Amino acid sequence: MQSSLTSTPPSLIRRYHVASVDKAQSPPNGSDGDWYRYVLAGGRTPITGLRRGTLNEVTEHARRCVRDLNDRNSGKRLSAWGTRRTKASASAG
Q1: For the chain, first and last CA: distance in Å?
Q2: Using the 8-state DSSP alphabet, how is residue 55 labeled?
């Protein structure tokens, strides 16, 4: 049985992008330093993250997240939650 994601044409899959990276207050019990809130949009719901670092470091982190999400959605990479077994090892065991 195919999942709805694999049967969806690639042109219809929404691609994530970095919508914003804004300075934020440090979280309770968080370490000192500069904190930024980032928003990834383009999927079914926005994804919000909070990370400590410089604006450039947090922006690059958000871009890596976007790249990973888009790769998973396009079938280029396995889901972080999926099995790591290959077809060969699955058929052998």
Answers
A1: 21
A2: H
